[in-house]
Specification:
alpha+beta, five-stranded mixed beta sheet, 1 helix, binds copper (II) ion, four-stranded mixed beta sheet, Immunoglobulin-like
């Protein structure tokens, strides 16, 4: 009887610790914690001097986290023409860029200055 109780307590402690670690991770990713919306994930591929997507419209909500995942054959830089602007550098390989949000409705262009191309237009509404 005693042994069983002890085991249950141990389990509860382990589970509790797991939950705490998980929610800390979430807290660190979101800057404000104000939005519990799922992030918009945009997969971007740079290959042979070209980029995919190329000028696509992506709908996002104001304050919704935007998560750019870059796969590239050489390092470069991405510009997000929001206010304030964001500049992200990436290396060859796969890079998960820091999440950002846009609070004001409108169209925000994400471009590669290396290629001088529009990657996506974020339509914030
Ligand atoms: Cu730019």
């Amino acid at each position: 009887m005693r042994a069983t109780t002890a085991r249950w307590i141990a389990l509860a402690v382990i589970t509790g610790a797991g939950l705490t670690a998980c929610s800390t991770d979430d807290g660190g990713k979101k800057d404000t914690g104000g939005s519990d919306e799922k992030p918009v994930v945009v997969d971007i591929t740079f290959k042979d001097g070209d980029v995919t997507p190329s000028g696509d419209r992506v709908d996002v909500s104001p304050g919704q986290p935007i998560d750019l995942k870059v796969t590239a054959d050489e390092p470069g830089e991405i510009h997000v023409h929001s206010d304030p602007e964001h500049e992200f550098e990436y290396d060859a390989g796969t890079t998960d860029l820091p999440e950002f949000q846009i609070d004001r409705p409108g169209i925000v262009v994400v471009e590669s200055h290396t290629l001088d191309k529009v990657i996506v237009q974020l339509e914030v509404k």
